[in-house]
Design brief:
This protein has 223 residues and is of the alpha/beta class. Helices cover 41% and strands 17% of the residues. It has one domain (8-216): Rossmann fold, CATH 3.40.50.720. It contains 6 helices and 6 strands, in the order βαβαβαβαβααβ. The protein binds NADP nicotinamide-adenine-dinucleotide phosphate (NAP). NADP nicotinamide-adenine-dinucleotide phosphate (NAP) binds at residues 13, 15-19, 37-39, 42-45, 66-69, 90-91, 115, 117, 158, 160-161, 163-165.
């Protein structure tokens, strides 16, 4: 995909973590990069706000969505359903609304790249909200790739990646989690935001990629 001074890329979730790394990479190309999140005044759980955002923005070329990293843990029997539904409202329904609204202003050759996570296809007790939300997103993206063609729609599925998403954990526990991942994953490391950002660039740049799930997870799915 050729970038020009007129190319407009939008990264929703671009204020932090993986989205910020994607935005940094796109900023090195010609054109402009718009980033948005609640910090810039856009809550993607608010469908009307999302529609107004794209109406105001005008024509775009690429949409990347990395917003919404939190979801309650716990067994199906125990999980707080209101918290689970709120997580879906942001990551799942927010991504659907973003794709729907972005498609109305997308120029020919445009792309939409959403974000799931390795738990979509790795089943671990106590993580069903992430599993369900990310699996639903992957399935929906494939449907969107049909319905929105020739706009290309893909999903990047990250593995454990060191981002601000884990800022709320105690430092020792967080370091232990990343050390354990580096020691056990086939790739011998945990993910950095820049590792994952390359998946979005592939989805944007390769004109033969649509309806794809791009796994960048250090081998977590073959463990
Ligand atoms: N990091 C990992 O280990 C990992 C693993 C698997 C999958 N993933 C997925 O990768 C994606 C990015 O994760 P990350 O680690 O980069 O997370 P992060 O650093 O927490 O960034 C999340 C971004 O989403 C935005 N956001 C959250 N709620 C929002 C809302 N309601 N409306 C608009 N923006 C919202 C945040 O900004 P505001 O707070 O300003 O809104 C922030 O920019 C997520 O979908 C996550 O599930 C991450």
């Amino acid at each position: 995909m050729t970038f020009s001074d007129n190319t407009v890329s939008v990264v929703i979730g671009g204020t932090s973590g993986i989205g910020a790394a994607v935005a940094r990479a796109l900023t090195r190309r010609p054109g402009c990069v718009e980033i948005a999140s609640r910090a810039t005044g856009l809550d993607i759980a608010d469908a009307e706000a999302v529609a107004a955002y794209f109406r105001k923005l005008g024509p775009i070329d690429h949409l990347v969505v990395t917003a919404g990293s939190s979801a309650p843990g716990g067994k199906v029997a125990d999980v707080d359903l209101d918290a689970a539904k709120a997580a879906f409202d942001v990551k799942f329904w927010g991504s659907v609304v973003l794709a729907r609204e972005a498609a109305t202003v997308m120029r020919p050759g445009g792309t939409i790249t959403l974000t799931s996570g390795f738990l979509a296809r790795r089943t671990v007790a106590g993580t069903f909200v992430k599993t369900a939300m990310n699996a639903a997103l992957e399935a929906t993206a494939k449907v969107l790739a049909h319905e929105l063609a020739p706009v290309r729609v893909n999903v990047v599925s990250p593995g454990l990646t060191q981002t601000e998403a884990y800022a709320g954990m105690a430092g020792d526990a967080r370091n232990a989690m990343f050390d354990r991942a580096a020691a056990t994953l086939p790739a011998g490391r945990f993910g950095r935001p820049e590792d994952i950002a390359q998946g979005y660039l592939l989805a944007i740049d390769n004109p033969f990629v649509t309806g794809s799930i791009i796994d960048i997870e250090g081998g977590a799915l073959i463990q």
